[in-house]
């Protein structure tokens, strides 16, 4: 309905126009004629003002372990093909209040160019890190230990080296996260730790090629893992803190692509360096160096933290990744599922070089080049099947919307993948293991991430729960390499490692069933 203003009565006198306010055209000195300082001041003037300005009550930036997005970034590393689609609730997100989702946690608004640099920087950093670590873990270090100690001694030595490295990395992360929170420098609080960790890891990665004893390899590897832990925890924190909410998913996808490409290229780097592992290790050290340079120079510079207030460091800052207040039974079972699933995956993957090389027995090892090529083909098959698993998982979600079903199917397929080499310890059996295992492990990881996010009992403590969830995966990998060492010390054939991988996946299935039953009872 159109609104019409009432017409004036012709008998009434015409209403005069309102009188203007007195001195309405008066310009107030210093107020109405005040210039726009952003346009009037030069960059040097702005820097001088910022340097001389007095900041009252400086803001205390949040700790990395208290930010769900930081823990989600760390959680995504375990699934380089793609993480869970379940969004991580963050009560500090700009989408939940009136803040601008185009700014980062510090209130800075990155430009389009800076956002593009973040995408390229995080993707390239992830690529070179994954390339170096995949080549060292899967091919080069096992080959070196095999040459130094023989089949059985090399496998036991690999378990010792990987176990010590995981333990040192885990302890270092517990300390480095809160220490970086309390760092105050003109270059930010994460950048110095990333730079220091990169330098340490590069130095000892170059030293790997000079080691001629398993003990020396273990010591150098452990110190290198400490440096990598410093770089990784700083990188995860930077992704959660410096990328605005609006672009975090896009930057995360770019990083995922970099991880997958680096994983594949790293495995094939081992093939190319099969007859010269020392040179391959040096190339991996160069890859770590390039990752550090890209992370520091391509990603926009972190804002200064000189004026940021720091709260006193407490013991709780060190224990945040190890415990949560009042965990439910469902949450405990999910963490145990994650622990046993990680142990089973490491048992099946970490020792694959020895399993392939000594397919016909400890006295009949395959040629090094043939071993490398088969391991690389198994890696490609596993990655391809993991990508297929991503589509199948989305299809199951769209039809049933049940992460529990995805988890149980993944656990069953993981057990099947581990049993196949036990029944048929042949080339075909190992390829079946790689394909079915890559498909199944990704399903398990995807479902566990979604279930972990949805089962957190206290949303305001989401970050702490996810930190413990990530720690359970690390402890599972430590359990897996320790079990692998005992298996190779007392087993007669290398295929025995798949038996214990199947046992670990079965225990994960039992814990998953208990978690599902508990959640239904609570619901």
TrEMBL record:
Positions of transmembrane segments: 120-140, 152-179, 191-209, 215-235, 256-274, 280-299, 339-360, 372-393, 405-424, 430-453, 465-491, 497-517
Supply the alphabetized keyword list: Membrane, Transmembrane, Transmembrane helix
Superkingdom of the organism of origin = Bacteria
Biased composition annotated in UniProt, kind: Low complexity: 1-11
Q: Which CDD domains does this entry report, sorted A to Z?
A: MFS
Q: Where is this region: Disordered?
A: 1-42
Checking InterPro entries in the record gives: MFS_trans_sf
Q: Which regions are flagged for Basic and acidic residues bias?
A: 30-42
Q: What is this protein called?
A: Sodium:solute symporter
Question: What organism does this protein naturally occur in?
Answer: Bifidobacterium pseudolongum subsp. globosum
